[in-house]
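tokens incoming
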């Protein structure tokens, strides 16, 4: 069985999607009439870029021990998310009810990509390991809270959104601090 290099595949897909998106964008701005078809085509290519980027992030950990299933799941979520989004953009299904599904797939693809990039950090000690685990938990909490808010059509009380803000700040803090702390830490400390 031939080995598939997912990283190269998604890099090529991302570059192609960016080129197509740029060409369509230039056409729409210079010669298009901003009609339904031009807008849908532009949204389709932008979706391809976004989901390809997420899948690319997930592919970076494919070769890491114990992370192949997570990587494949993230790539699958990105692929399915792209198909779901395209279905909504081109209105193959009643998009009013389908809109929540599109948003949920965007949240999931983003979370999988985010976590995949965090998992590239090779903790030098236990302190960094626990910081990494805690940050991944914050990413999951933010994703779950956003999904819940999407399902309930953002009909949550004020405290819910305050709590979401707190977890988002902790998510961003951990995302920035973990690789920096790992870089400046020697292997013997912690």
């Amino acid at each position: 069985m031939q080995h598939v290099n997912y990283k190269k595949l998604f890099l090529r897909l991302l570059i192609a999607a960016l080129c197509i998106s740029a060409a369509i964008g230039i056409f729409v701005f210079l010669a298009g009439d901003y009609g339904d078809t031009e807008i849908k085509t532009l949204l389709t290519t932008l979706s391809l870029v976004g989901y390809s980027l997420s899948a690319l992030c997930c592919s970076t950990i494919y070769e890491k021990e114990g992370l192949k299933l997570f990587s494949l799941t993230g790539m699958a979520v990105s692929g399915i998310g792209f198909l779901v989004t395209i279905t909504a953009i081109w209105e193959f299904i009643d998009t009013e009810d389908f809109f929540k599904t599109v948003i949920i797939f965007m949240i999931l693809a983003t979370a999988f990509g985010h976590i995949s990039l965090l998992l590239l950090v090779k903790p030098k000690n236990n302190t960094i390991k626990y910081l990494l685990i805690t940050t991944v938990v914050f990413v999951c909490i933010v994703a779950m809270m956003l999904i819940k808010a999407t399902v309930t059509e953002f009909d949550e009380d004020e405290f819910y959104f305050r709590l979401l803000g707190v977890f988002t700040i902790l998510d961003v803090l951990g995302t920035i601090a973990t690789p920096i702390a790992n870089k400046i830490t020697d292997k013997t400390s912690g």
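note: The two ends are 44 Å apart (CA to CA).
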